[in-house]
Amino acid sequence: MRALSPTDGSADAVREAADAALAQDDDRLALERELDRLNTAIQGSAAALGQHLSWLIVAQAFLLTAFIIVLVGAWSLPLPGKRWLLTGIALFAMLAVSCTYLGLRAARDRVGPLKLQRQRVEDALERVAARPPAFARQGTVTALLAQASTRGLPLVVVAGWVALTLYTLALPLPLPPSGD
């Protein structure tokens, strides 16, 4: 509320000062509502990002288990097309990683502008209501590591599947049991 001068004590001056205080308070309330809306949207997008990562890990665990069972358990059995089966599992796993990466990227692309808008609203709240930001600004190193992790994890998984496939293709086939 702006201070009144000693010479201006009229009802109009009091009303003007009260209106100015209410307008500033309305601005603060509108910014607080916008900040709450943005935080809710960011939490939803972060939950989607977490779900994509969880499904990536679960799918890869099942596929790796199937791969190891066929590689170790069935390698000595007379199963035709073992290499094709193992290569097919590895290719399907790489396809699953690629699709999950697209989902991760879409979730990350949705959350980026929301975080930028939240930072702008927090800056405005700091100016209007002297309210400190609730979320710390992300440093350059932290932002770089965060982007590298969402991009790097799928690449590491794909590299692992490529290595397993090459290993499988290089393995010698077991000799059929002799009837001696």
List keywords for this structure.
3 helices; 79% helix; single chain; mainly alpha; 180 residues
Describe this structure in words.
This protein has 180 residues and is mainly alpha-helical. The protein has helices at residues 11-73, 82-129, 140-170. Helix 1 packs antiparallel against helix 2 and helix 2 packs antiparallel against helix 3 (140-170). The protein is rod-shaped. The N and C termini lie far apart (103 Å).
Short recap of the structure:
By secondary structure, the protein is mainly α.
DSSP summary: helix tally = 3
Percent strand:
under 5%
- Rg for CA atoms: 30 Å
- Based on helices, strands and strand pairing, what is the structural class? mainly alpha
Q: Please write the string of helix (H) and strand (E) elements.
A: HHH
The overall pLDDT, averaged over residues, is 78
**Low-pLDDT windows of residues:** none
Roughly how much helix do the residues carry, as a percent range? over 70%
**Shape designation:** rod-shaped
Q: Give me the count of strands.
A: 0
Give a short account of the largest sheet: none
- C-alpha end-to-end distance: 103 Å
Topology (SSEs and partners):
Layout: H1 11-73, H2 82-129, H3 140-170
